[in-house]
UniProtKB/TrEMBL annotation:
It comes from Methylovirgula ligni. The keyword Cytoplasm does not apply. It catalyses: Fe(II)-heme o + 2 A + H2O = Fe(II)-heme a + 2 AH2. Heme binds at H269, H330. Belongs to the COX15/CtaA family. Type 2 subfamily. Its EC number is 1.17.99.9. Pathway: Porphyrin-containing compound metabolism; heme A biosynthesis; heme A from heme O: step 1/1. The chain crosses the membrane at residues 21-42, 107-125, 137-155, 170-193, 205-227, 271-291, 303-322. It is found in: Cell membrane; Membrane. Catalyzes the conversion of heme O to heme A by two successive hydroxylations of the methyl group at C8. The first hydroxylation forms heme I, the second hydroxylation results in an unstable dihydroxymethyl group, which spontaneously dehydrates, resulting in the formyl group of heme A. This is Heme A synthase. Its cofactor is heme b. PANTHER family: CYTOCHROME C OXIDASE ASSEMBLY PROTEIN COX15, CYTOCHROME C OXIDASE ASSEMBLY PROTEIN COX15 HOMOLOG.
Length: 359
């Protein structure tokens, strides 16, 4: 039965024509979330995230339009600790540069909200959605709303007694964006019967673990960015001459090391990267041995190649001490790895069978 089977007989003939439209809409949403993550990365790497010290969901859409308005915004920025510690020599033109990064990030978030909400109302009114799809799409909208609150919760952590946002809040913010992206990709992929791949249970479990590992790695990467840990230890494969640094449990209580210790944060990001790469290669080998030449085997091989490329990008970003372009490419590729892992898992789940089919 189609996921877009009509709710009432009158809409039965029209519903199938909406499948493609809904799928395109959701891929546009996914592309916007992808852009949001990249812009967010640029905002972090340019130290722009605290340039707007207030949150006005409606009036904040309009940036300052006069010299007096710009001066007032700049004065607000001068009151926070980050200005005194990092930007004390910043002039108004420099402030405008960092302001527009943060403003663009927030504006894109508002645009995404509208791009989700307005078509949802339209498709709902046209009777094009099943109850199951309604539930999923309302959940997607709720995730977007929650992201706005989490974003301000993150920013507020850097306005008093700190010169940057709390890295754990930054990581939660990025993780929630990644989950929202993954959910969007999953729903969009589920509307494409051609994504289904016949599979066995072990493959679905393997693919599910990889999706979770990818999300964990993105979370850890945000901790690294939040602590600027990529610039503290920028050699590979060793860290300060050691594969396992001797300062991993330097802080007390011990659990603080996993979010506050620069060496520990980067070390765990490296270890999960190695683990994810090993999982991707193992999945490709196991699937190719089980059904050589199948669609599942080809997809798993392509995914392993994508993860390998991301690992290389991570190393390049590290040894170059995280220049803006490399940091953004690395973050963007992380989202592409997540996209590929989610689509692969969704295809396996959609094609549950006792055996894999050959092409």
């Amino acid at each position: 039965m189609s996921v877009l089977t009509s709710i009432n007989p009158a809409a039965a003939k029209a519903v199938p024509s909406y499948r493609r439209a809904i799928q395109i809409w959701l891929w546009i949403v996914a592309a916007l979330i992808f852009a949001m993550v990249v812009v967010g990365g640029a905002t972090r790497l340019t130290e722009s995230g605290l340039s707007i010290t207030e949150w006005h969901p409606i009036s904040g859409v309009i940036p300052p339009l006069s010299q007096e308005s710009w001066a007032a915004e700049f004065d607000k920025f001068k009151q926070i600790p980050q200005y005194k510690a990092i930007f004390s020599d910043l002039d108004l033109n420099g402030f405008k540069f960092i302001f527009f990064w943060e403003w663009s990030h927030r504006l894109l978030g508002r645009v995404i909200g509208l791009v989700v909400a307005l078509p949802l109302v339209f498709f709902w009114a046209r009777g094009a959605l099943t109850q199951d799809l309604k539930f999923k799409l309302v959940g997607l909208l709720a995730l977007g709303g929650l992201q706005g609150f989490v974003g301000w919760w993150m920013v507020s952590s850097g306005l008093v007694n700190r010169i940057e946002v709390a890295q754990e809040r930054l990581a939660i913010h990025l993780l929630l964006a990644s989950i929202t992206f993954a959910v969007t990709v999953w729903i969009a992929s589920s509307l494409s019967p051609g994504n289904a791949v016949r599979s066995e249970r072990w493959q679905r479990l393997f693919a599910g673990v990889i999706v979770l590992a990818t999300l964990l790695q993105i979370f850890l990467g945000a901790l690294v960015a939040g602590l600027r840990a990529g610039r503290a230890y920028n050699t590979w494969p060793l860290m300060d001459g050691h594969f396992v640094p001797d300062v991993l449990l330097l802080l007390q209580p011990w659990w603080r090391n996993f979010v506050d210790n620069i060496a520990t944060v980067q070390f765990q990001h490296r270890m999960v990267a190695y683990t994810l790469l090993a999982l991707a290669i193992a999945q490709a080998i196991a699937t190719w041995r089980a059904v050589p030449g199948s669609r599942a085997a080809r997809r798993s091989l392509h995914f392993a190649g994508l993860v390998t490329l991301q690992a290389v990008l991570g190393i390049v970003t590290l040894v170059l001490a995280v220049p803006l372009w490399a940091g953004l490419v690395h973050q963007a590729f992380a989202m592409l790895v997540l996209l590929a892992s989610v689509r692969y898992l969704q295809g396996l789940e959609a094609g549950k069978q006792n055996a894999l089919a050959r092409p």
